[in-house]
Amino acid sequence: MRRPGLLLFLSTAAAAGACGDGGGGISGPPVPRMIPGGGVGDGKISGYMNVFVIDDETDAVVSSAAVRVGESAATTACDQLTDSTGIASFDPQSCPLLVGPVNVTVSATGYAPSTWIGVNGRNLTVGVRSISAPAFGSATVYGTIAGWDALPAPAVNHQTLAIIGASQLPGLGDRENDMAQGKRTVDVDIGGGTIYPFDIDANLCARNALVNDCNWRLITRTGPQAHFGIIVDHDTKGTDDVESDDTFTAIAWALKRNLSFGKGAMASGEVLDIIRDADMQSLAASFASAPSGLDYVGALPTLELGAEGRIAIISPALDSTSLMTRVPKLTGTLADAHYDLIATARDAIDKPQPVTLRWLRGVDISTTVAVSGWLPPPTALTVSSGTYSFTPAAGATLHGAELQTPTGERRWSITIFDGSTSFTLPGLAPDPLPLGSIGYAVSALRIPDVDLTDVVFDGLADRLTDISTDLVTYSR
Hints:
By secondary structure, the protein is an all-beta fold. The protein has no helices and 35 strands. The strands form 6 sheets. Strands 3, 4, 6, 8, 21, 22, 23, 25, 26, 30, 31, 33 and 35 form a 13-stranded mixed β-sheet that branches. An 8-stranded mixed β-sheet has the order 15-14-11-17-18-19-10-16, with no helix packed on it. Strands 1, 2, 5, 7, 9 and 34 form a 6-stranded mixed β-sheet that branches. Strand 18 (247-261) and strand 19 (266-275) form a beta hairpin.
């Protein structure tokens, strides 16, 4: 799980006084300890604190990051820069009255600031997310699907398509899962011996009256992975210029496992094997009533492949009107895999907010998978005179917030450890928030049995059960 790429957050703290809320004695300095992936640990703050700053997506240390300890309005807040190892250390001389819980704000050039409210740990590792996506390592793979030409020829006004993809990393917000694919050129026979070059998505196979080509190209991430193909029948309804009436029906799956690629690798000749219908089975789901106002419910089974990542079964979709889909059996090459189910409820299928997501792990697909116990989204989100407020979601473990551009890009991340339902943010130079419209999103997480004074964020991936979010916009 990628820290508050976990959908929005994991960042910061409310304290009274200059740098703390007073009380308690001064203890000796803790041994500096970076917590891989971000986290909190090594006892409550009492005079000393170490703050490591890392890149939220690469885990690389961030030097010369500004670390501010204290409430947003405090005139005696403590400020330091991280050194070449990514650490800023605070002691009674540099930061008097340093007793937890405290607020910590971290900022660095090229990164969205991160604020942790009410955090209490002598060693903190805070992740900040680059405003621009990192230059992830990638590989280029060329291949085909075995038996493509043996599939039934598409009917009139239909075409057979295959969308090729790679299994995803487990973090819900991992930008490495969204590699741009580009285009490739296929030969279209328009009759009379005339061949016309036509561009299609590079990771697509297509078969219709004019073209039959399954020589796909995939830009993929590095490391262990599996590749898959979703083969669908595309019914154009005879209206090639109107896409709104088109339908897509999954007719087969293809798969290749135990792959791994290094940065810059080029591989050719990969063949995906079609999964026989006899090796598929039905998966049924049922949905309990969603929180008030969330009228659309749906779910995706995810094929969990361990170190190779996960594959979402996106077609046929599961929702309140279609309660059954087809998935590969967990036999043969998939004998070591298992299924999770990620369910979502929202106002409408085309309205991303408010939303709640429920994660059921290790589901038994031989029986109907029941989705219940939804976590309601936070409500009453308001922004007034620099104060951000919300009503928390009942049953949440913690809440976080994110300030976003109109296109959804993060510009400030806030994680709330102490149950606060309103906060202000310190002034930073340069101002990380652009003028104009700003999105204020608040998320609730449910993570059973977590201790927020001793936590490794990357270790929460298999314990997270729910995320819910709502968003409002304001102008500045």
